[in-house]
């Protein structure tokens, strides 16, 4: 925060562009009670582990709704996407109940994420030096679909990625953008911080392959909002001493800037009707990626994508869909891709059907006189 403010005031063009063209939200601590407890105890003899839990005893990183398991169960029953969405999955009712075992911090973060149309996010942690991306939840064997054949020279390992997100390639790009700009994150020739290197010397790893857990903020963010969120482990020491903070900052400074700039990669635009009025909650569908997003209250949307050509469509209730081809370039700067939707007759048809109790409307034969009951029904309908 100090760096962004100082460099902005000093006229740094890169920071000025980032600040003026990006809505940046910074949360100094997701668990202030736990941090205070760990700070008072000191970092020696592993006392930093006290800061992993809230005052009420919750592990915030595993306290969010497990929407991934719900999605996979629906896929098993062939319900996706016609009866069960592949995006913006609602929070289960039992999770929202007052007596549910949910931390106040978790409820606050979920409300905050629902209020703001976030596009890219990261939660910063310590104790390791890598970037972890979704899915964090390990998919049960019985729910795994048949894996597609892979070429022998594939850059992944021999085991197929059975819990990849539809945006797997994009998540890898985002993770690499941070790890490659870090001063030491990809120097894994000595192994990991505490065990062997789990990143294949790249500094990135899929959460479910490294440390499987259900109910992570990363999986929740991906399946409930438009936001792509990753976990960034800044360094091996979970509670570094004050004398080490300057070097830790230098190690991560360029990575933080580069990662934030990735929010401007992909496509963006407005979805409006023929009168120019914005359409909120319109669905943006990218061909080949089985994960959709929705427009914000002002009809605007952002979709992070890797460079390439995409067939993109916009759909909204009561409107005819619109399809166009959008090209994403390698340079930073999202491609403008706007949609204008025309109203559909189906909206009026549904209104008429609803007036009739969603029952088929009986056709009146002109040659036969109407009964008093039929005449009354027709008058009420009109």
Automatic annotation (TrEMBL):
Query: Which BP terms from GO are recorded?
Result: peptide metabolic process; protein processing
Q: Positions of the region Disordered?
A: 142-161
For the Peptidase M14 domain, which residue ranges apply? 1-263
Its domain of life reads: Eukaryota
Instruction: List the SUPFAM superfamilies.
Output: Carboxypeptidase regulatory domain-like, Zn-dependent exopeptidases
Single GO MF annotation: metallocarboxypeptidase activity
Q: Where is the signal peptide?
A: none
Q: Which GO terms describe its cellular component?
A: extracellular space
Q: Identify the CDD domains for this entry.
A: Peptidase_M14NE-CP-C_like
Q: Does the keyword Transmembrane helix apply?
A: no
Pfam families (alphabetical): CarboxypepD_reg, Peptidase_M14
Keyword entries, A-Z: Glycoprotein
What the entry lists under InterPro entries is as follows: CarboxyPept-like_regulatory, Peptidase_M14, Peptidase_M14_domain
Family assignment?
A: Belongs to the peptidase M14 family.
Supply the name of the protein: AEBP1 protein
The lineage is: Eukaryota, Metazoa, Chordata, Craniata, Vertebrata
């Amino acid at each position: 925060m100090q760096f962004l403010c100082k460099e902005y005031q000093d006229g740094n063009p890169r920071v000025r562009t980032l600040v003026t063209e990006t809505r940046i939200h910074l949360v100094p601590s997701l668990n202030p009670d736990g941090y205070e407890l760990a700070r008072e105890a000191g970092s020696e003899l592993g006392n930093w582990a006290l800061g992993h839990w809230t005052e009420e005893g919750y592990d915030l990183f595993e306290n969010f709704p497990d929407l991934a398991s719900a999605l996979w169960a629906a896929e098993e029953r062939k319900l996706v996407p016609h009866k069960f969405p592949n995006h913006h999955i609602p929070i289960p009712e039992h999770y929202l109940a007052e007596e549910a075992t949910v931390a106040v911090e978790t409820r606050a973060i979920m409300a905050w994420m629902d209020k703001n149309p976030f596009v890219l996010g990261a939660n910063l942690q310590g104790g390791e030096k890598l970037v972890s991306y979704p899915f964090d939840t390990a998919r049960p064997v019985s729910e795994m679909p048949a894996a597609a054949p892979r070429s022998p020279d594939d850059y992944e390992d021999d085991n197929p990625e059975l819990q990849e997100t539809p945006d797997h390639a994009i998540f890898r790009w985002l993770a690499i953008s941070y790890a490659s700009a870090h001063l030491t994150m990809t120097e894994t020739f000595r192994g990991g911080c505490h065990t062997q290197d789990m990143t294949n010397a790249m500094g990135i790893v899929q959460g479910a392959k490294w440390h499987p857990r259900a109910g992570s903020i990363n999986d929740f963010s991906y399946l409930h909002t438009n936001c792509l969120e990753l976990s960034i482990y800044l360094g091996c020491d979970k509670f570094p001493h004050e004398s080490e903070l300057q070097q830790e900052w230098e190690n991560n400074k360029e990575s933080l800037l580069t990662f934030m700039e990735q929010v401007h990669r992909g496509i963006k635009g407005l979805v409006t009707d023929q009168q120019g009025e914005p359409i909120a909650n319109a669905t943006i569908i990218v061909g080949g990626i089985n994960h959709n997003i929705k427009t914000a209250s002002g009809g605007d949307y952002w979709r992070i994508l890797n460079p390439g050509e995409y067939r993109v469509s916009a759909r909204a209730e009561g409107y005819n869909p619109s399809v166009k081809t959008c090209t994403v370039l390698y340079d930073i700067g999202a491609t403008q891709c706007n949609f204008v939707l025309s109203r559909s007759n189906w909206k009026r048809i549904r209104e008429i059907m609803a007036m009739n109790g969603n029952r088929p409307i009986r056709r009146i034969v002109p040659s036969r006189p109407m009964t008093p009951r039929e005449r009354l029904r027709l008058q009420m309908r009109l």
